[in-house]
Amino acid sequence: MQIDQPETILSSESARYSEEHLKQLASEQKSRKKWLLVQPVSNTSMMVDSGTVSIPLNLLMVATLAGELFDITFIDERLGDTVPDDLSEFDVVAVTSRTLNASKAYAIGDLAKVQGKIVILGGVHPTMARDEASDHCTSVVYGEIESVWTELATDILQDTMKEVYKASTLKSMTNMHHPDFGYALQSKKSKKYSSRIPILATKGCPVGCNFCTTPTIYGKNYRFREIDFVIEEMKYHQERLGKKNVNLSFMDDNISFRPKYFLELLEEMAKIGIRWNANISMNFLHKPEVAELAGRSGCDLLSIGFESLNPETLKSVHKGSNKLSNYGNVVSNLHKNGIAIQGYFMFGFDNDSEESFQLTYDFIMENKIEFPVFSLVTPFPGTPYFDEMKSRLRHFDWNKYDTYHYMFEPTKMGGKKLLENFVKLQQEVYKGRAIMQRMKGKPLNWVWLANYMMHRFTKKLKPEIYL
């Protein structure tokens, strides 16, 4: 009898959190509980939430999932919508957060806790800084909500909340819910959303750069949806908008990690006439046939983290997919197939010197990178890099963890020189003459507009704004 007891307990626990039990509980409710889902605005001084903003796909997926059992009110503060001071009409207040808007998310959580609500915090920052986030909510969702949904929803219905919901195993993407865009588009200010529609084909990135939060959230897992489901979702948007050439943005961490899957997906996409962009690693973009297929499938822009032109820096952050010898081939292959490049470059590493800025400028101009994006190295909480650099960090003001504020002094150059060169590089790259040189012969589209906006923005830059 004593031997059998653990099995009995396990069986009982499993039954309590089964989908069948959840459905039964939901059917017994006299009225559906009401959720307030919030996408907070950031408090950073930089251009993070200005202009058009992307539809928050992860929060939209939460709304779609929760909407099967609960009544949902969806608020995106970036649009100008506001969270009411009086939360009496809601039972649950759920807020997503990344580091740069964590203080805003915590303020909303504190307000809701005072009013006796079930408060759920999720997203990157609560996952990476779980103990801190716990002070401002009832429960922290660690990682993705889909993998803990049955347990979380059951506890909400029974009012038996735990401090943390963390999945022992991540759920397959096979049955991932088709996001209902109606939750986001019902806002009167939804025109502020980008026309590019977010979509997801894969999750995770096993590369393991030491400054990245993805390995903590997903471990070394790499999951993907069946290609038929991804294509079906694309066709849904074509029908919804009444046109074939819809613009899609993949929200994947590393869509090309499995080459066979990626290439098969592109072959199917080439048949339906969409346009798309994505973040992508350089694993095999040096192969001409990959760039050709990407162009044929409707790709108009790829966002690539070049990060640095210094091989020692790339080695220090475990950026193994970046090989300097491939940089030129990657750019050439993409440009030959009409694909523009949003290139990301980071500064402030210990190996950086004034020469690093000149090398980056030369590379951008020689290779005509259409949309260069510059950032300052930011060790995010919960990453190996944060643990390594913690004693050297200038502050822990999460509002400034936006990759645009000076976090620590590199060993090879002082902070003043770092910021002076950082400003100079941006202003030189976005001078009118430099824009014309980089964009000569390129189609007149939103990338031109982005360059014009950056030209205006960088003219006003001064080193002190990055402090």
TrEMBL record:
PROSITE patterns: RADICAL_SAM. Its cofactor is [4Fe-4S] cluster. Pfam families: Radical_SAM. Residues 191-412 form the Radical SAM core domain. InterPro entries: Bacteriochlorophyll_C12_MT, BchE-like, Elp3/MiaA/NifB-like_rSAM, Methyltransferase_Class_B, rSAM, rSAM_horseshoe, rSAM_sf. The keyword Metal-binding applies. Keywords: Iron, Iron-sulfur, Metal-binding, Methyltransferase, S-adenosyl-L-methionine, Transferase. One of its GO terms (cellular component) is cytosol. One of its GO terms (molecular function) is catalytic activity. PANTHER family: ANAEROBIC MAGNESIUM-PROTOPORPHYRIN IX MONOMETHYL ESTER CYCLASE-RELATED, BLL1977 PROTEIN. This is B12-binding domain-containing radical SAM protein. It comes from Prosthecochloris marina. The lineage of its organism: Bacteria, Pseudomonadati, Chlorobiota, Chlorobiia, Chlorobiales.
